[in-house]
Amino acid sequence: MQTKAKRLLSLDVFRGATVAAMILVNNPGSWGNIYATLKHAEWNGCTPTDLIFPFFLFIVGVSIAYAYGTKKMDKPLHPALLLKAGKRTLILFGLGLMLSLFPRVFVDPIGAFEVVRIPGVLQRIAVVFFISAFLFLKLPPKKILFVGVALLVIYWIIMTFIPVPGIGPANLGKETNMGAWLDRTLLTEAHLWKSVKTWDPEGILSTVPAISTCLFGILVGVYLKRTDVDHPTKVAWLCFYGFLTFIIGMAWALQFPLNKSLWTSSFVLYTGGLATLVLALTYWIIDYKGYRRFTKPFVIFGMNAITVFFLSGIMARCLGLIKVSEDLSLKAWIYNTFMTPYFSPTNASLVYALFFVSIWGIIALIMFNRKIFIKV
Description:
Layout: H1 9-26, H2 52-68, H3 78-101, H4 109-114, H5 121-138, H6 141-161, H7 178-187, H8 207-224, H9 231-252, H10 265-288, H11 296-302, H12 305-321, E1 323-325, E2 328-329, H13 330-338, H14 345-369
Antiparallel strand pairs: 1-2
Helix pairs in contact: 1-2, 1-10, 1-11, 1-12, 1-14, 2-5, 2-8, 2-10, 3-5, 5-8, 6-8, 8-10, 9-10
């Protein structure tokens, strides 16, 4: 039997691999030349790329269970913990807005705020983190499970049964579903995803089931922290529940399709089940069996996950803004000079993405070796 819960190296590896994958898929050499596995599904369906964001929210949930677990029963500490969580939420949300505002905010501040995209990846992480942390501190695991399931059922009812105002019957169309209508109504088209402006993949309503993704991670984290269960038993039960949840998600998808942009309830169960299986496998290999030689490249990303993700987004935009010549950006120069002459278009695009990830791997390694860990 275990005597105490320890920090999970497997979780750091899982987090680091997820962040590295985020950077990889966000920075191809050319958006017109990408392998299918590195693209999001056009609408319904789920590619490996579609797994990345739900995996990260799942990891946030596991991290909440580890960070706040020992303090959960000390209720006088709750206000201070929630205040700290609130500050972290505001910082994350602010960083997300900064990514949306950059670089226009430095040239036209008023104009930038008038059209800034309010939803976003970091913004969703912020909101989901705070609500999930609050629920974890205030509710026992069984009630957290009930809330998570209830959110999925309520979202399913809203999306598939309630008519969309001004449009007609409930539907899952890109611009005509209830979530798209709510985003346009509350945020207006000026503050939505610039690629379409009529809906947002990180919209308001679809954030509700995203909370369930994080709660799923919390429940897994609570179980992993148990000191009265041995490692093999933990792995066995995690594999069982992960596979069961995955199957339920697949079955629900027959009526409520897998869809990352809508973050459908079936998508939550499908990705949550897969995330549980991945964590169970890495937990078995790394934390129980002790195979750790391969872990450092992932750990260095995981220890500064949000920082690396945010700064890589800023760097990517800077590379597109810096001009080598009148009509050639620094990014285009690197891509055209070192990638396109030597590889096929799709491979050249992938090599650039790997090059970009490698740059941030070096930066993350320097931070790791100097013990610079920026907690956002």
